[in-house]
Structures are given as structure tokens and as C-alpha cells.
Amino acid sequence: MNIIEEMTCKSVDLDGFGSAVDDAWFHQHTAPIDGEEETGAHPYQSAALRLYLQGGQTSSETAVAMTKSHTPEKMTDLRDRVLGIIEDALFELPETHTPALVSLLKDISQLPEEEDGEAVWKGLRSFGNFWSDKWKQSHWREALATRSPATRAKRREAHTHLAFVEASCAMADVGPSAEDGILPLSWGYECISEALECQHAVWDFEIPAAAIWIKIAGERLIEGARKGERSWALEREGRLWAPGPMSMDRWNFWLRRLKEIEVIGRVTSTAAREGITQLQEQVAHS
Question: What InterPro entries does this protein map onto (predicted)?
């Protein structure tokens, strides 16, 4: 039997996904990690986050507690520790904690501290870079094909969870531009357009993710369609819809595509059930 070698890709990995909010999780994310003091959150930051997730303090109180420096390290290094543990929490912890974590990010993004004349927290652009480097790797479809089919359902769950987190972050501090927000609305345009306009889409992953974006950000997306909003995510070549701005025509095309995919899904499901029945009957009669 030929064994397919797994392609390295963090975007389809499950490391930590579905973790419980317990002592072990906070220990794994608190410095020192693997003996390195520079890696992981400071103990006081982990303690503040834990207290918050347990309902012991508000998001604004937690934002101040986690971003207050107790050591002479640079503020940018402190920021990396704060955003690192929140990023891991957003992916790894149950979805019931996502709204609280997004609220915490929003409060952190409004803190006024500066270092060397530059804002440390405002807008949290560095968070988008953190997130993109880990979870937006372009070769994820190819990497997924190298993973065991037995893990596909769990990886699908993780993929749709990422869409929920990203859409929630985009809408937490939504602005007039598709690039505004804790994470950009353009990622929603990317998710939906790739699911519905690309012929190589992985439907069982990308259609549920697109549906989540539409559910959470639908009102803002329609607003973008009505005003002809532009986004880099809508300007890609080789798709079923030509590069260009968002529009109501494009929105209606997405709707038609979803209806087509729904029909295909029903036909495929019916055929699969019939195939199962035939296979079972052949075995029974042999």
C-alpha cells in the first residue's frame, strides 16, 4: 500500500483544537515553554485571561491587566506574548469562549500606549499578521489531500471554527473599508468568493465556512454590494466571476451558486445511499 507523505501546513493541523479551559492548557501557554523564558505568556497574563474566561473580571479590566508591563522588556515583545496566547485561545478553546475573546481583543485594540512614537495596540494590525501567517496558508487544499480521511470531519470542524473567529473579529470593529476591523472584511470576500467562484473549491470545507461569514457579516456584505466595494479578494483571475468590485449582481450569482450546490448535494447524497444499499445487498446475496 502506498502511503501519502503529509505536506506541512499549519492551516490544516489540529494542534490543540478542542482543548478544555483547564490547568493543563494555561500551563502549556505560559512561559517558560520548552525552557525558554521568551516564549509564552507571562504568568500574570495567563492568570488574568483565566480569571476573565471564568467570569471574574470584565474585558476592559483584563485588557489593562494583560498589557501592563511587569518587566523591562519592550512593549512590542509584551504585545507578542499577549496576542500569542489570545490567538491560541481563539483556535484551541471551545467556540463558546470566542465572543469573550473577541471582546477582549477589541478592548486591547483601543489602548493608547505608544513605543518610539508608534502605537503598540491601536488597531492590532500585528494580530492580523500573526493570524494570517498561521491560518491563511495558500496551499491548504493540497495539504488537506495528504491527511488521513479519518480526520477529515475534525479538520472540517476546525476550518469552520476559523471562519467563525475571523468573521467575529471582522465585525467586532467594522469600518467603512473592507480592510478595517480587528481582522479584515476582505477575508470574508475571499472565503465566499473562493467557495462559490473557484472550480477547485473543497465544498465540504468551504461552503460551510462561507455560510458562516454570510450569517455573521451578511448585512455588511450587502452594504458592500450596494456601494460597489472593492477588495483585493475580489480581483483574482480565472474564476467563474470576472475580477471587479462587489455588486448586487455578484451577490445574486453567489445565491444561484449556493442553490446549485444544494441540488448537487442532494443528488450526490441520494446516489450514495442507493450505492450503499446495492453494496450491502450484493454482500448479503453472495
Answer: OpdG (IPR022085), Oxopyrrolidines_Biosynth-assoc (IPR053204)
Grid coordinates belonging to 37: 523564558
What is the dihedral sign for C-alpha 203, 208, 213, 218? positive
Domain locations along the chain:
13-137, 155-286
Number of neighbours of residue 280 by Cβ within 10 angstroms: 10
Q: Which three cell numbers stand for residue 186?
A: 476582505
Please provide residue 114's backbone torsions phi and psi, each rounded to the nearest 5 degrees: -130, 160
Tell me the pTM: 0.93
Of 16, 26, 111, give the one whose Cα is nearest residue 62.
111
pLDDT digits (tens, 9 = 90+) for 149-192: 999 999 999 999 999 999 999 999 888 999 998 999 999 999 99
| CA dist 286 → 13, 272, 278 (Å) | 42, 21, 12
Count of beta carbons in the 10 Å neighbourhood of residue 44: 13
C-alpha cell at 256: 444561484
Alpha helices in 110-247 (DSSP H): 125-135, 140-144, 152-172, 186-197, 203-227
